[in-house]
Amino acid sequence: MATTNIQIFNKNQNNALPDNEYNNCTEKNNGFLGVLARANVFNKFCYQTSLVARAIADFMVNKGFDAKDSVVNTFTTNFEKAIISVISNEINARVPNSRAKNTAYQKGDIVTDASLPLWGELECITAGTSSNSDFSSLLPNPVNYIGLQIQDGSVLWVLRAKRFSSPKNTPIPFNGQFVSHQVLESGTAKTYYVPVHPEIGLEMLDYRYCDGQTVGGFSTINMQDRFLMCKSKVTNGNGNAGTDEIAIKREHLPTGTFGLSLTCNNWPKSLNLKGTFDTGNESQKHEHNDGYSVTVQQGNSYGVKTISGDSLKTAPNIQSHNHKVTVEFKDIDITHKHSISGTVTLNPNSQQKISVVSQHYKIAYIQRIY
Description:
- Helices cover 15% and strands 28% of the residues.
- It contains four helices and 17 strands.
């Protein structure tokens, strides 16, 4: 265990000049000019310098290196090692490790290799131990697509594009080009779409267009024609609560004046009409044998039955007399029917729109499948 013997002088700060006085004192600016030094000034100076020395020593010890004043060169070397260890840890945290032979890797490990394209890095998707071969021998030449899976011993790597990463099975927006691929499944050709990296220009086989298909054992979420809405609370699952169709209720409809379209039919009515009319003066001599009777042909639409004269008899020598005629319409059936057709339209002066929606900017969604 690393240790140090560097101590703080005047740890309790007894008889030390206060900060405000020490900042302006003559000794701090010009040094000790006389034979004797003021104790409170000397105590302040020793406390501050020893404090810095102890802070450096604690830093070295925390990094696993001794900080002792026995050998100056050893102290200096350990101080350098402590600084280098901090730099190395920072670099390792920011830059992937290089792939090594015969090394165990866990799922999710990120490494690089000199034989990779400058845009690429390796992600372990199956844990295992790497082979004893140089990685360059495992790569095709040239590397012409992203998402290449490489078997390295028992480790399975996938070649990713740097600065382009997302969690598996999580849709992300993508504004770029796609390339179609086909695969034969159960005798049927299925088409799926692969995005093209917008900067590198290579196909990303580890991503697919989110169209809800299951092709080659990989499924995507269907994001076609979907509208994203933030959840009102944190819940598990995809939260796909929308529907493709909605019901328009009466209160959703616009107001206005509408045209008429109707049919009136089957209005039956039976009538029985009878009336007596004076025929006027008869000035010609005539006789009545069996009364006065006239039969009229039935009307076309009104059900006229008969017109018969009144059986009034008069003497044949009386020329001037009147006749009364009774006209009777029996059981007239009247049916009144109208058919009115037209188009129901909104009155443009009172029409209201249900909503006003701006144009949409459509963007595709892609999903990492492995």
